[in-house]
Amino acid sequence: MNAPNETPEKAPEKTPEKTTGGPQKKGANGSGRPTTAQIVDRCQALFDDLDFTAVREWKAADPARKVIGYMPVYVPREIIHAGGMLPVGILGGGDQLEVIHGDAYYQSYICRIPRSTVELGVTGRLDFVDGLLFPSICDVIRNLSGMWKLIFPDTYVRYFDVPQNYVDDIGGNYYVNELQELRHGLEAVAGRAIGDDDLRRSIAVYNENRQLTRALYDFRARAPWKAPSAEVYLVLRAGMVLPVEDHNRLLLDYLAAAESEDRALRDNCRIVLQGSFCEQPPLNLIKSIELAGCYIVDDDFMLVNRWLYDDVPLDGDPIVSLSDAFLHRSLETAAKYEPDGARKGAYLIEIVRERAAEGVIFAAPSFCDPALLDRPMLARALSRENIPYIAFKYAENSGQMQPIREQAGTFADSIKLWSDA
Ligand code: SF4
Q1: What are the start-end ranges of the E strands in 111-206?
Q2: Taking the model in full, what pTM does it have?
Q3: Per-residue pLDDT, 6
Q4: How far is the centre of ligand 1, averaged over its atoms, from the C-alpha of 353 (Å)?
Q5: According to the model, what pLDDT value does residue 420 have?
Q6: Whose CA is nearest to atom 3 of ligand 1?
Q7: In angstroms, what is the span from residue 285 Cα to ligand 1's centroid?
Q8: Residues of the chain where predicted confidence (pLDDT) is lower than 70
Q9: What span, in angstroms and rounded, lies between the C-alpha atoms of 362 and 388?
Q10: Residue 70, H or E segment
């Protein structure tokens, strides 16, 4: 068992290395493919770069190129891609950004991501963004979309609503109209039509991205010591700023490298982490949980990668296909409305069983209504099944990992000693 005090505290602030996001260096493993260390170094540099240099370089390569940012949790990136534009995930400022101006726009008792996003905006770090989508997840994001319109009147801003009724001719009709409106809005930004064949090509490349992401999650669940969650996180986070075609190659390279490299198997328990779908936890929090003795074998980070859980069909009307996928083949999560109260938490039990997990860690941003309001119902569902859990909150800039390390370490010990789950 690992001593909880092995976990590093927050790293000192450093000047991020800028990265072009260009082709990965080939590795020292004799296969011609990069090693996991090389891939993770590249992803870490992308993660650290709050100036989004890779995106700026992509855009600068052609004056006609446009960038559409999106906030968590889910947007149909296929429509942006079909317009020849780059979708870029804006996931807050993390723990390296000092929020100075952003605090003036919001009250104190609120999560941090809207304040750090405003900070990124007003300091010019998002000046390459031609449009920004604010998906329907909570009032904070809704208010941020209105604020963005006021602060950046020349940017295309859309509050992207999703159905809370999954009947085809009610919520489905509504969502098809919403997707069509989004398509027309993006056409205006792109300066070109977005045809059905454009959409089908983009759906195909995102289907591949979803397949590879599922393969990565399955691989980590099978051999979590070979794909530490902090690495998996960085690899997926790179997909927030890289063109999807590059990210598909990166995922393939990481899977190949991780499969081929031997790593030490720790005496960790297996846990599912839930509640981190919007404001992202500090990377050190993810490392702390694993070093305290818990392998994360499933999570809800960056759900945009996995919101649709299988391929979107390429035949028929592509907008209807995207809508059908949202209605009938999308993940159940606290970030999505569940109309049947009796089913609340059923998905979490299924994940625990499917991943052979021994417990659940609820880790949610402070003041996050969608995550924290669901937590008691999810916890009750776990208790009924005798599945152990613990819960804590974080902010994207939390620096003190000692309490989390102790809590996760004690949880791991209790599972190993007493749990019959
Ligand atoms: S962290 Fe939670 S409350 Fe804050 S913007 Fe995201 S979903 Fe809303």
Answers
A1: 131-135, 156-160
A2: 0.92
A3: 39
A4: 28
A5: 58
A6: 368
A7: 18
A8: 1-31, 419-421
A9: 11
A10: strand 67-70
